[in-house]
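chain below, 369 aa
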Amino acid sequence: MPRILVSGYYGFDNVGDDTVLFGIISSIRSLYPAARFVALSNQPERTRALFHIEAYNRWSFPVIFRQLIKADLLIVGGGTLLQDVTSRRSISYYLGIVALAKVLGKRVVFYGQGFGPVNRPFSQRLIRYIANRVDLITVRDDKSADDFRRCGVKRPPLHVTADPALGIDPVLLYNNDDAKRWTIDRGDAKSLIGVAIRSWPTDREYIRNLATACDELAIRGNKIVFLPMQYPNDLDASRQVQSQMRYASLIIDQQLSFREVASIISTFDLVIGMRLHALILAALYEVPFVPISYDPKIDRFVQRLGLGPALSVTDFDAKSVVDRALFLLQNSTKSRAAIRSHLPSLRKEALKTAELTVALFRNHTGKLL
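prediction:
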């Protein structure tokens, strides 16, 4: 039974990253059900409970060393792990684990990675030195592939696939108990509009404009529901917007699992989102969305889905949000069909990473299947 160690941003109560981990696990198991997964996590007990896999402390070097010795393969991903904007230590942490894995003679896969921004010359040199020694790199968009190459990463096979979360069969996410528990009372509302935002260091126009937009949509008979994707971090932004609204709205002020969040998003008629995986989950359920971009990964996903450009968090106005939201709601059938037409190719690309990973492991061990 192959033992696969997964290193990523897990155990931080981030629904997006949990969804990514589920995408990795479910995609590989669809090809090889006996695969045994082990995750490095900030909250090992919570990760074990969520995914029913082994999980260990991501901060303990002895633990990491032991798990690497036991592993047949190291997966790094998904998400945007190689960036030095939110943390200078992120790149050193993940590449340090990769370097140790290679010293121990392990195969390493970068799985459905995003890339950057990487601004520091030292980070770029570290990526070039270590990433050239991994066995397989898959990225979730063309620009991430270009960024790897610009950093001088040329030796490993590099494939453009898609975000691992897009490989999830929505049936596996949908849980009847969660759906029943989180049925939101529509009352006499025309539509349920989910808002998944995060705090961002820009001027207060972002908050005021979004509050105005939500009010305008509420005036037209729609119910606004704020859905924090990273709890409790996203609560502050939601509360700030709600405090500047004149009309009633709902904040789901509770820590939810990725399954619970997915079940809620499946009931929305529209999503207004800054969080990438709120948009990805919406797409999996063919729910139209208005993307607000704070990072190139949002723009890249929207582009791959064949939709109009995302609004920028630094310069959008209330009217642009309202106009796009109303258009999508009034043309709901066409909006859902537009997502449906592009989704199969992205899901196929996401599953390609699993296929490449399994093929790599089979070639290395001869054990699979």
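Residues 34 and 266 are 30 Å apart (CA to CA). The chain has 15 helices and 13 strands.
thats it, cya
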